[in-house]
Amino acid sequence: MITKRIIPCLDVKDGRVVKGVNFLGLADVSSPVKLAKFYSESGADELVFYDITASAEGRALFTDILREVAKTIFIPLTVGGGINSVEDFDRVLKCGADKVSVNSGAIRNPELISLAAQKYGNQCVVISADIKRVDGTFRVFAKGGREDTGMEAISWIKKCVANGAGEVVVNSIDTDGVKRGFDIEMLKAVREAVNVPVIASGGAGCIQDFVTLFKEIPDMDAGLAASIFHFGEVQISDLKRELAENDIIVRL
Amino acid sequence: MIAVIDYGVGNLFSLSSSLDMIGAKSVITSDAEQIRKADKIILPGVGAFADAIKKLREKGLDKLIIDEAKKGKPIMGICLGMQLLFEKSYEYGEHTGLGLLKGSVVPMQGIIPTELKIPHIGWNALHIKAKHPIFKYIKENDYVYFVHSYFATDCEDSLLATTEYGAELTSAVALDNVTGCQFHPEKSGDIGLSILRAFDEWEATK
């Protein structure tokens, strides 16, 4: 049967991997190419590269790095950050990306998802949503979690999937960087609302958090994390062994 | 030299990089002379069947591939490229394929349980049904990466491996020199690279 996926996420700025706590206070971690190779060898099922640079030079550096990664690592690569147009899809797909994740770009221009899906297929388009509880509702945030869009998250995600997004990344701002576990309540709400793969993000602090995720929500497709992998707190090989021991199907 | 057929369907960057990685000499081409001179052919492809077969025909590549296959040249179709090797596809209508393998391509919808998502995307296990040189490094239950909504059926004579996803789906085929993978070897880590390596090393005799 199809496996649950474990996905390390690499935030890249000026050619280096960074990770913030609650999106603030960035700390330099490692070389993207070295880290990607390390993850691939330790059993990562997929890699997400997130470009958090704003400058044109930073963007060019990012695509150079992506190309280098895609020449040495042969597992699926998803790329996000700064994707605002179909031309941006084209730019990263040509460098070896398999899927492209859109976030603020889709909020500014909801047509982007349908245009990209028509051109590259639904399987290529990932909607990534940063979600936070505001007055008891799930709200979509833009600009790396800094700006409340006022939009209700579940209906936003349903709309994106209806427009052609083939996969959803749910990043809970409430649990991101806190390392006390995934946001089970929020993830369940999204999982029940759509019929495409959902990737859980934000809050993983230890191996048990992944076990809890897949036990609490058996049809969750993947778990994504950054800092716990970058700093070696959790080894992907140990994590997958533990999942297998808990009868969760993984690629060993 | 492996000729990777370029007919404007999908991105060949990863496939070309993976062939470089295993030290296989390859060229991305739509040139008839280059394809004729090559020792082997890889037919890649993502997207819709009808559009892909139309593009092959427009470039005259359909006949060329069929001729080369009949001469005994090893061919590997990947993903949609594998589906094109069959007689027919029922993806949005009914379309004629290259007909190098017996069988047809049908939608998963209506065959697999409705709670399973389509496309079938992700890592899934291979169940080996036959022996073939392209699988010389492959073991039962090795995992490979899939992205597809249609699959080949009625292809018992070429069936090499199946994969479980609500039904037993064809995941690899091989009949003499004509082979294909429904999954993406260029995205399936070391297992995928070992299939490409076996294809490169294979000296077909016919």
Describe the model:
The complex is a heterodimer of chains A (252) and B (206). With 252 residues, chain A is an alpha/beta fold. Chain A has a single domain, classed as Alpha-Beta Barrel (TIM Barrel), CATH 3.20.20.70. Helices cover 37% and strands 28% of the residues of chain A. An eight-stranded parallel β-barrel of chain A has the order 1-4-5-6-7-10-11-12, surrounded by six helices. In chain A, a hairpin with a 2-residue loop joins β2 and β3. The longest helix of chain A is centred in the N-terminal third of the chain and has 17 residues. The radius of gyration of chain A is 17 Å and the shape is globular. In chain B, β12 and β13 form a beta hairpin. Chain B contains six helices and 14 strands. In chain B, 51% of the residues are buried. Chain B has one domain: Rossmann fold. With 206 residues, chain B is an alpha/beta fold. In chain B, the strands form three sheets. Chain B has an eight-stranded mixed sheet with strand order 2-1-3-4-14-13-12-9. Chain B has a four-stranded mixed sheet with strand order 6-5-7-11, with helices on one face. Chain B has a two-stranded antiparallel sheet with strand order 8-10. Chain B is globular and about 50 Å long. The mean pLDDT of chain B is 95. At the A-B interface, α2 of A face α1, β8, β10 and α6 of B.
CATH superfamily of chain B: Class I glutamine amidotransferase (GATase) domain
Spatial separation of the terminal alpha carbons of chain A: 13 Å
Per CATH, what is the topology of chain A?
A: TIM Barrel
CATH class of chain B: Alpha Beta
Mean pLDDT across the residues of chain A is 91
Question: What composes the largest sheet of chain B?
Answer: 8 strands, mixed
Number of beta-strand segments of chain A: 12
Q: Nearest-angstrom radius of gyration of chain A?
A: 17 Å
The CATH homologous superfamily of chain A is called Aldolase class I
> Level of helix content of chain B?
25-40%
Q: What is the spatial order of strands in the main beta sheet of chain A?
A: 1-4-5-6-7-10-11-12
Put simply, the count of helices of chain A is 10
CATH architecture of chain A: Alpha-Beta Barrel
What oligomeric state do the depicted chains represent? heterodimer
The first-to-last residue Cα distance of chain B is 19 Å
Can you identify the CATH class of chain A? Alpha Beta
Structural domains of chain B: how many: 1
